[in-house]
Amino acid sequence: MTTGSAKPLSFEEGWPILQEEAINKLIHLVEGHSSNHFTSQEYMRIYTTVYNMCDKNNRAGPEALKLYSQYKKTMEDYVSSKVLPSIQGKEDEMLLHELVKRWNNHKTMTRWLLRFFYYLERYLIPKMRLPSLQETAYLAFYELVYGEMNDRVRDTVISLIDREREGEQIDQALAKNVLDIYVEMDEDSMKCYAKDFEESMLKDTSIFYSTKASDWIASKSYEDYMLKVEECLKNEEGRIQSYLRYIRKIKLLEVVEYELLTVHASKLEEKKQINVAAA
Question: Where is the Cullin N-terminal domain (predicted)?
């Protein structure tokens, strides 16, 4: 990509251009206040401004570091002022819908800024040994939104799963879209998914089936109980295929089997012997 004749710009000269012509317009687009997309001429002007703000010969100088720091602050300010307030007032499934919408908007904003700041990302950030622009943007969302909202989001998703286990129809696509966020925020390590969702999900699964096992052992015959166990395992596998695709399948099924079979092994054996004797 050609940038024309380079005209070095200080941070103080270049940032107001980026703020007005790139960031403000992009926020209006993402927030739905405008439908005017960037023209090729606008894109080139923004890209060239970034290029001219960076030191020549691909050196990671002070202007590049200022630009990176301001990019980080811009993402944090956007999340704090626009994203978080829109989510805080929502409850239950409306909370999940708003979270999914806001995450998709955040990804859109990040993609555009990556294009605008490509020169900084491609040539200078590696030399400065700093997190990539995408990592920085996603971290802002994680720390400012999930840092505050994760408990409510997680508990709402788990509540949906338990409602489905009770026989209620739920919005599986919504649950899947929320769980995708956990993964997309840290796709390489899956730490967000494992730490912020899976651990609690497995604990809830254990509690849910422990309660059900006690009820079913007392009320069902051996044959009916075993059919129920088979049904539960089949349903959990179905959930894994539909929207729990990131969870450790073996671990989830182990939890279900442990609560339904292992914990009550002696009682089940007694019921089985009674049935054999009665046959």
Answer: 23-272
